Amino acid sequence: MTTSTIDAAEVAKFEAMAAAWWDPRGEAAPLHRLNPCRLDYICDQIAAQFGRDRRAPAPFDGLSLVDVGCGGGLVVRGQVLVGANAIAGEWGHNPLPWPHDDERPGPACYCGKHGCLETWLSGPGLARDLFTHSGRHLPAAEIATLHDADALAALQRYEDRLARGLAQVINVLDPDAIVLGGGLSNLARLYENVPRRWGSYVFSDQVATRLVPPLHGDSSGVRGAAWLWETDESLATRREKPHDL
Question: Collapsing DSSP states into helix, strand and coil, what is residue 221?
Fold first, then answer.
């Protein structure tokens, strides 16, 4: 029997504040102001743990950061799409497509639903899958380095689920390329095995979409988040000069 540690009251609490969560001038403004300090602390701890120099151009080069979620973004003609609801590319909270019988209803997600892609394709999702089928508790980063039967079977299931999830994206958007990110993007086998599998799910005789690794490594998402950081000065400018509609 599968037990869940998800607290329904906590899910409801954060769901109620989700709309204002990312507003730097809203109720969560103190968290936005605290974030640079928090990130500095995290980076200092990582540097100390691995003997890295924070002043170096690439202090964490060679380290793998395993993501704990699963999201996405859309870029068209060099421009990031935001969308009417500011959720363009929110792929992780769609259900796993073409589920097998043993994949229904799927793991519980913090959003309150079951079987979201995030619950299957995040690092913890891979670890949970290995435990479900073998009883072994191992982090995703370690699973990726193993070659025993249990680990390889878990990786194959992961690849098929990723292929199904990305095939759905291809069927809707038909992109030129899909760029992976996060710690699991370091798995070289994904770039060969997933495209080989997604052909069975894409509604086309041929699939020209490329699956490629992130140009700046598995921390490219952190780099993007840093670019989106708005200083007090930029926020003041936006208040004084609102965007034309």
Answer: helix
